[in-house]
Amino acid sequence: MRTLVLLGLVGFAAQLVDGSLGMAYGVTSSTLLLAVTANPAAASATVHLAEIGTTLVSGLSHWKFGNVDWKVVARIGVPGAVGAFAGATLLSGIPTETAAPLMSLILLGLGTYLLVRFTLRGLPVRRDPRPPGRRFLTPLGLVAGFVDATGGGGWGPVGTPAILASGRMEPRKVIGSIDTSEFIVAVAASVGFLIGLGTENIDFAWVAVLLAGGVIAAPIAAYLVRVVPPRVLGSAVGGMIVLTNSRTILRSDWVDAPGGVRAAVYVVVAVLWVAALAYSIRAHRAQQRAVRPESELARVSS
């Protein structure tokens, strides 16, 4: 019973983070599941089955708050489903420990770029007016879907920073569209796991409590992403990616850092992340104060 309550709380916290930052539901949930089961495929299957419900509610919530670009959802979601089905089928019989550190290095680079860019510069003044096209979103969806299924999470950490870095969408629209398209990916991955594993290795009680926690958190997260300033949101996304993937790399066979070294790195990254968020908040407030007199002057002139 204690395990089920803990899983429910994890589902709530994971969806709250995922719905407001566009990532980390699968990463957070899979980490706990892997701690109590030795089968990575079963852990990923459990998470993706729960995500069918959480992403549906999250997508509807984001749509209600105007955070969804449906063209982007279609262009990245369909190839994402193909990649997820292929990844689920592969993971059902082949371990993926070797690929995880390499992908984490790529994500760490993207996360560092986003953290620095949004903290120091915020959103570009002149955003690229062209929306993300199929040439960009199709391969991105394939890779993100494949990584998501094989790693137990990754749709958000791969898709969100890549689209944010393109400068073609505001953060809340990126997060809303990624969360909404994840429903298609979760369905495809779940079908792949059910075909490859069957149902005997999946604990549906775990699926239910993860789903319940996520469903409760989804509308709250969709509201938060609308009210949090884009500059602050970008810094939060970048810091989440850096912290998550630093952990993966340090624990991998490539590095296998001692516990003390890992703890020191986590503390340094966390301190830098908090400092970046504080700087972004101050910069946003300063920008708001600078814009307010101009708006008042414009009203007086009119």
UniProtKB/TrEMBL annotation:
Signal peptide start-end: none
InterPro entries membership: TM_pro_TauE-like (IPR002781), TSUP/Inactive_protease-like (IPR051598)
Keywords associated with the record: Cell membrane, Membrane, Transmembrane, Transmembrane helix
Segments passing through the bilayer: 40-60, 72-94, 100-120, 178-198, 204-225, 232-250, 262-281
Entry superkingdom: Bacteria
Membrane topology per record: Multi-pass membrane protein
A Pfam family it matches: TauE
Compartment(s) of residence: Cell membrane; Membrane
Recorded GO CC terms: plasma membrane
Family note: Belongs to the 4-toluene sulfonate uptake permease (TSUP) (TC 2.A.102) family.
Protein name: Probable membrane transporter protein
Protein source organism: Jiangella ureilytica
